[in-house]
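Task: complex structure prediction.
Instruction: return structure tokens for all chains below.
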Amino acid sequence: MPRLMPEDASLLLDHVVGDPSVPAAAANAALAALPFPSRPTPRLLRASLLRRLAADPVSAAALDSLQLLASLPSSPSPAAPAAAAAAHLAVAAYLAVSAPDFDAAAGALFGRPGGRARRAVEEGGAAALASDEADAVADQFEAAVGNSFSQTVLRGLWGDRAAAEERVRELLAVEWAAIGQSRLEMAAERIVGDGAIETWRAADEVTRAKYRLLAGEQRAREIEGKLGETIPQGNQISTPEVHKVMDALKSSCANLHSVVEDPLPAAKAAADEVLAARMDKAVDLNAGEVSNQPTACDIAGPSAPADNLDAPRKGTAASLMDWNPTARTFQWEDSPDPDGSCSPIHRPQLPSPRRTTFSPLQPADNKAKRRKARKWCALEEETLRKGVEQYGNGNWKDILTNNPDVFIGRKAMDLKDKWRNMMR
DNA sequence: GGTCGGGCTATAC
DNA sequence: GTATAGCCCGACC
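Output:
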């Protein structure tokens, strides 16, 4: 039996781990059985992190996974950055408020300059995780150190573990939906899918024989039939000698088919058997032993039971090369991006034009004086409500000065305006 | 100085 | 284009 080459293992892992319908136990078995590539595809890295998150959605390790995920080439889904930012914020905040020592945890996560979560959401961190809300929340946690009132409010806002887990599940759903085809699926599409005619036309006889094995005889005949139809009439040579040779070839092929069994079904069955045996073996082992199998980049992490995978599922168990008629078509590339950084939606970012006011009555620097609008976060709204209850409507200065840790960068009139909006 | 009401601006839909 | 939230300005106490 030919030895499995590292590139083949990479293709298999890219396909199996990145397929959300493959149960966690099977994916972990594959990760344990096959060498993890030294230069994994971005899809494999992303899938590994998603599986790790699904198994352990709210923890310090999950925070690591979320930050690593944000450092990968961006997901094709436009909803992914917001989902990632929300999940990251929810997990970091929950870890801080649920820690036995709030001050130590909040400092380690949100303190300046080295807080783990703060570094990730600040400029220079992960762009996908940065937002005004993240900045504001980081400031609030930092300011809440030593302030029991703020800590109580923050616990009320961020202390729901189920809510944090829900944010992670939402991110998982968005990411899995956009993970795209594996390299094997793309290759399969090229050989038996939409691009098959061109691929087969360009192939020599030896290569076509390999394609025939992969596609199966029936599909191969369909493709070759279409290929024959597309050959320009002017290129056909029609002489008695050519007809004689073609008849001989057809006869030879028919004889071959009658005596040689198509090897693909048997090979596929054997492969399934081997995979099933491996899975059984892995599942029989102590779950922790399997899940803690280290990988080359230590990314596979703890496994989850098969029913713990929070990912969209297909109706039936997927075979490695099951053909998916609804799959999308990708432009084939023979070699992967050397740095693994290519993104399907990477486009140059151009600054959007903004309106500029020019008026002789209004000095240009007036624009700079206007503060940038910053959305009110839940903590500010909640504190404002409590402040109005405590100090009374209209006493904005009192409310502001008694909650400097919460109303960072706000003025008394901002509180008034916000209350006016909240009462509408 | 603090608060109020009206108006302006940026942004989301 | 419209609705809304956030910010600013001038008047008033």
